[in-house]
């Protein structure tokens, strides 16, 4: 199993979110864009989010450590899960970032080796694996 700390870069995997803003807030954002402070609304929102994450960095890090989360990317290959199965063990996956399960992992293997999944961020797995693990994903 590989663990990598991630810092998103242009062109890397992103997740789309939708937010609702009041018209006054939106107008203020548009004004800043029009005045050249930001290239577009998305640039403003990403910058605001990153600034808040920096502000709360210590809380995030201490919570990740306390709750034993993997910070960044955690990828599980078929070989990883077969080794867990051979050892007669099960995984409790806790990731802040991106957890991915390889596309060649069959649902039966995932069920046999994954006790629970908590992902604060994104989980990438086949639809069949996600369906099989639905009651174990929190």
Automatic annotation (TrEMBL):
It comes from the Bacteria. Signal peptide: none annotated. InterPro entries: Arc_rbn_hlx_hlx, RHH_8, Ribbon_hlx_hlx. SUPFAM superfamilies: Ribbon-helix-helix. PANTHER family: BLL4998 PROTEIN. This is CopG family transcriptional regulator. It comes from Aromatoleum buckelii.
């Amino acid at each position: 199993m590989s663990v990598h700390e991630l810092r998103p870069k242009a062109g890397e995997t992103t997740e789309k979110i939708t937010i609702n803003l009041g018209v006054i807030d939106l107008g203020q954002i548009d004004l800043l864009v029009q005045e050249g402070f930001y290239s577009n609304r998305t640039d403003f929102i990403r910058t605001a989010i990153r600034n808040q994450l920096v502000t709360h960095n210590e809380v995030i890090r201490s919570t990740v450590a306390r709750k034993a989360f993997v910070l960044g990317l955690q990828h599980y290959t078929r070989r990883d899960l077969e080794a867990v199965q051979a050892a007669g063990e099960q995984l409790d996956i806790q990731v802040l970032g991106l957890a991915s399960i390889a596309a060649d992992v069959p649902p039966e293997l995932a069920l046999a080796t994954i006790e629970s999944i908590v992902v604060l961020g994104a989980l990438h797995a086949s639809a069949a694996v996600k369906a099989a693990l639905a009651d174990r994903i929190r």
